[in-house]
Amino acid sequence: MTTVLTKAFPQEMPPVPKAVPDKKRVLIVGGGFAGIAAARGLKRADVEITLIDRRNHHIFQPLLYQAATAILPPSQVAWPIRQLVRANTQVTTVLSEVTAVDAPARRVHLADGAALAYDTLVLATGVTHAYFGHDDWAPFAPGLKSLDDATQIRRRILLAFERAEASPAEAETLLTFVIVGAGPTGVELAGIIAELARTHLPEEFRNVDTRRARIVLLEAGERILPAFDPSLSAYARAAGGPLAGHARSDGSWPSRHLCHRRHRRRALARGNHGSGTRPGREAAGRLCSPGHSRPPERTAFAPAVPISP
After folding, report:
1. DSSP of 147-191, one letter per residue?
2. Domain annotation for the chain: domains and CATH numbers
3. What is the pLDDT of residues 117-164, one digit of tens each?
4. CB-based contact 108:29 (threshold 8 Å)
5. Catalytic residue list
6. Which residues contact 251 (CB under 8 A, 6 or more apart)?
7. At what angle do helices 256-270 and 230-239 cross, to 10 degrees?
């Protein structure tokens, strides 16, 4: 009798064939700024590039806030990824979502069950907003990272004016807009809502004065635009007029004494900045008037009023 000994080996997936066997495979996950830049940067390299994104379009995020306020149509801030890379014949675009990365096997797994092998992997998936442990805020306070976010915010803003027109007695509540985060997007969004309410809409409504809309900009730090030079923060705060103030996340305001001393010192140090205006003291007085120990008129800390999606 002959005995046959067998040993079980883990079954390995067959390698994904290369379109061009001698070329290295570069796999880029994400069709945002970084992903598109990586694909274009490799244009002269002798590599095979696969660009994966779960959406078929690239978003120009700096203008996304304008799509969220009906200033620009969504088509003006988004372009097909395939169109952006069509001149580079070494790039293959795949519409799918990466669910896992198997680094030892140099392979990524997609939502549809497929797998793609790579020699070099570029993860350019971008970032998303966070609610600091309060994910239950999401239905009432959408972020602004995608076209879906922008159209949802736009619908809520315009619907707020329509509801105020139908119920003028509730206009003060309905036309209070709260924006959390005074970075570039928050400041731009606050400014464009104010422009929309005070410049574009007044003549279109009969029962409500849209100019009475109140925009609340909340920032946990000491100043708006915290990533920028303090002089730019001060300029933005002064240029905001009635939108000049900012509240902390707990609703408190910087003390009059600290605000006055800090900004006066900076304004005096800057002088007139070559603007032809009176140097220092006048600007400091505007930035830190006694009223700035509390929210300026029509800009105050207030709880957000949720509008049902």
Report:
1. HHHHHHHHHHHHHHHHHHHH-GGGHHHHTEEEEE--SHHHHHHHH
2. 24-123 (3.50.50.60), 139-293 (3.50.50.100)
3. 999 999 999 988 888 888 998 888 899 999 999 999 999 999 999 999
4. yes
5. 188
6. 301
7. 110
